[in-house]
Amino acid sequence: MLELIIALAFNGLVWGLIVALIALGLSIIFGLLDIINVAHGDFFMVGTVLGLVISTSTGFWIALVLVPALGFLLGWAVERMVVRPTKGPPALTIVITFGLSMILQEVVRATFGPQPRRMTPPVEGTIHIFGIDYEIYRVVAAVFAASAICLFFLFLMRTRLGTWIRAVRHDRETATALGIPVTLVCAFTFALGTALALLGGAIAAPITTVEFRTGVDILPACFMAVVIGGLGNLQGTVAAAVLVAVLEGVVSSFADPTVARIASLALMSTVLLARPHGLFAGASR
Question: What is the pTM of this model?
């Protein structure tokens, strides 16, 4: 029983880092553009599909580079052609991104097929850790996701464009008065958030089912991470994503996965009642 709990806790940690990577994109898009992007989970799904398709011809490691690059271009195009012309109240953005979600799912189903597929891990074998034999690729996936998260924060804190993003998130009008190209920053931010979602999909492809409905399951986890961590709080989003995933992993060791999801929803409800602005409200934006 202890070995099972350890294995599922590790699975939760790995999945939590991947969810954190995806939720960062969702959080930064919401914090800057005030868009509730219902299609964000489907961007993850597109990443899993592209990761599988591209890796068959170029290899998995090249796919890890190409998929987020394609995601950036996709996000830029969606912002220019869908989001910007229809930007309005939050309720309107929900309807628009929901329509985009349906389009992405149906396009993938028409081109990729409706049948779920599995991808062979690029690194096979197990490693003995804490008394259990654990898949090597899951460790590699956790390292890749954590590295991508660190690089994201380094970019946000150490580059001029990252400073512009933080300035626009903090005060759009002042940023405009200071000469920051707000429109360009918004387009770049949406593209960056989309690229993070597709990168998370490419990393997760060998450990999850690849199909057109994959994004339906990941979206609630991302929203819970954003809400529990605090709306607009990026560090809190990462911590909350890992917390929720580990919680679900541990609960799944002695209960049904549905009960595990109920436990995470109960945690979110408790946080909203006790701290409506999130566990990490007040931390630096």
Answer: 0.91
